[in-house]
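Complex record, two chains
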Amino acid sequence: MQSNQYSVKVFETTISDEEEFKIFFDTNYTLFKDHLILIQGEISENIKNYLKDKKLQYLQNMNLPKGRSRKALEKEFERLEIESAVTKQMAEAEIKKLSNRLQNNLTVLDGMIRSGREINIDGDLLLLNRVNSGATIKTTGNLIITQVVEGAIRCNGSFMMLTASPKANIVFNNVEVDNSLLEDRLNRVELKNDEIIITPVLKKEINWAL
Amino acid sequence: MGIVIAVISGKGGVGKTTATANLGLGIALNDKKCVVVDFDIGQRNLDMILGLENRVVYDMVQVMDGEANIKQALIKSKVSPNLYFLAASQTKDKSVLDSKKVEKLISDLKEEFDFVILDAPAGIESGFEHTIEFADAAIIVVNPEVSSIRDADRAIGILDSKSAKVKKGEDVLKWLIINRIVADMVEGGEMLRSDDILEILNIKLIGKIPEDKGVIEASNQGKPVILDKKSIAGQAYARIAGRLCGKKIDMKNVEISDSGLFKKIVGIFK
């Protein structure tokens, strides 16, 4: 679509005395010849012909959008600014509330979980290492594991983030998760309306900036 | 003061005792004073592999209980004057061990020798825990198969939680030996590759030992395979012993079969 955008000067009037109108335009023709003439009210044939002769563009009974004064614009900006500040504050409060809920009982582990270990976490867990075959991770909250899992996972939170783990045994809210659905990088596993939804989060290789 | 190295595996039958005997002898052949101690109480067999079974008079439990002194119980190897052996008791069981007594014995041996090598029992029971408790380092022996890897992983986990050194906030050194590698099977994808094993266990590799029929015969004769200069397993043990003694020896890739390479070269000329 191609389009042009430009401003037009408009001369708006109502005709009460046709002769007066003609005289006005005769004397000020050079000034108004490039204006758009907007006439509110009825126009007689006489005037129509006059405008045609003078090659003046005109519209009748239209409500054109008008530009606002600088002052009015400044006022409008001020109002928007206040409004956005309020929404920003509200959003920040919302995030704070959420992160508070996450970090109140967030555990971060970076050691390898070897066979035979059972980790029981009351709350959320962020694990930055492998879970080997024969190890078990249990959380009451959400779970994020950034490396491959070969052991068992029992997560009762509202979401999990896992990488592809073909050897893992994953039970999420008492439902076994088909781990062939987990893709190479990171996957989000959530419970929505009693349904387990698996969404690949990162398509690209993750660089954890070690 | 010497270094105490526990040889562990978790799973039985992967070659712990063979590794202990060969590394002990290898270290002694590098002119370091070395003692190998059999901690597999009730099921000793290190004496047989070292060819010293008929020389055992006093065992480790008798030393710990004060029935014999350590000089009487230490058996000198026929092969190297630097190698000594302390036998496990064959009549008692693992329950006779006690942390304080073990600590005393190990610190006495540490005074006397450059290397104290402890042959741990299989499993992760109390006997195993006593073996690793006062060790400065551990050699973990695995076979390239999943059950051995998982058991070793478990054993490493216990080592990391029960070792006296870890409790003091220090690190226990951990070295991995992958034993009984069959190159053809690794190439065919039937056997785990060492890279995969290292990724799972995440410890330092100190050597790979190829499968070698000579090992069993050597054990039966009581002459550790390291003495056979032609044996590929013996050569591998010699390289590991050298590394333990601080020599820089490049890792040899035993996961490529010579026959395979030979076939490929012959193939080019066909």
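Note: The CA atoms of residues 22 and 50 of chain A lie 8 Å apart.
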